């Protein structure tokens, strides 16, 4: 197996163009598991850990309005939690639930996107935050909306010569929540997960499910129902405690958005039930935060 070690992004992109079969390795917390279990035997590994450009983050746009945070694909979960927790609360919440401190020190958001596991914890929050994935090759750079990035189980929209260079996440300053159900509290792959983000500037609620379909996905009917309900009752301007009937309907529509399978981690029926509970619970938390903000 060849081990390619570029020092710069330009060098990495040239190598990927020459060797599209080379498997990128960032933190290695997915790649090394696959190699160790002999699930994958690539002809070459492309080590991205020397590339400083991939380990940086910056805020673009109007910082007064929060701007958009461009997070290099090699930024670890630990750094997202410590350095971006206030700007991107949803992503930080999801990052806190990943693995253990060791995994969070090594694992990266780019690696989560590269693996494109339906159970990856960052995906639902990237979907509700309207994030875009930055992909680069020697042919140029393009932005892929998160909603178009996940194509199937462990399949994403990258071309063979492309690398993920960053993810762009708008920092809205509005409440976001993430929750996951696992067989225990830590070091666990999600049985199912859920993220919700309020977008008061657009009178919108965004909701997404993880580990409950071949790809992470938005729960569009739930979003439309709740956004319409909050707008028609003028609650964005004057928030009130949400009616139980509204929360239940939202939870039911979130569960309907999922198409889970029965597997060793849980049954499809359990996943749907758990999602409806997570949706009601996280909506309550987000709405409580919003009510306090507006008051
Ligand atoms: C013990 C353990 C616990 C875990 N717990 C969780 C958990 O709770 N939640 C969770 O979501 N995940 C979990 N994981 C999975 C893993 O930690 C995450 O998916 C992590 O984000 C992978 O990041 P990485 O940098 O280590 O990726 P790597 O292993 O380096 O790469 C992962 C994939 O992405 C590709 N890739 C990496 N960087 C790029 C790039 N820049 N461009 C294109 N492709 C790229 C690689 O080729 C590979 O296919 C766990 C793993 C372990 C071993």
What does the model show?
This protein is of the alpha+beta class and 295 residues long. It is 37% helix and 23% strand. It has helices spanning 9-18, 31-36, 77-84, 89-96, 101-106, 109-115, 122-128, 146-149, 220-232, 244-257, 268-294, and strands at 2-4, 23-25, 44-47, 57-60, 68-72, 132-137, 140-145, 150-152, 155-156, 163-170, 176-181, 192-199, 204-210, 217-218. The strands form four sheets. The protein has a five-stranded antiparallel sheet. Helix 3 (77-84) crosses helix 4 (89-96), helix 9 (220-232) packs antiparallel against helix 10 and helix 10 (244-257) crosses helix 11 (268-294). The longest helix has 27 residues, at 268-294. The N and C termini lie far apart (60 Å). 45% of the residues are buried. The model has no long low-confidence stretch (mean pLDDT 96). Flavin-adenine dinucleotide (FAD) binds at residues 23-31, 33, 48, 73, 97-99, 103, 106-108, 110-112, 114-115, 120-121, 163-164, 187, 189.
Key attributes of the depicted protein:
295 residues, binds flavin-adenine dinucleotide, 37% helix, 14 strands, 11 helices, alpha+beta, four-stranded antiparallel sheet, five-stranded antiparallel sheet
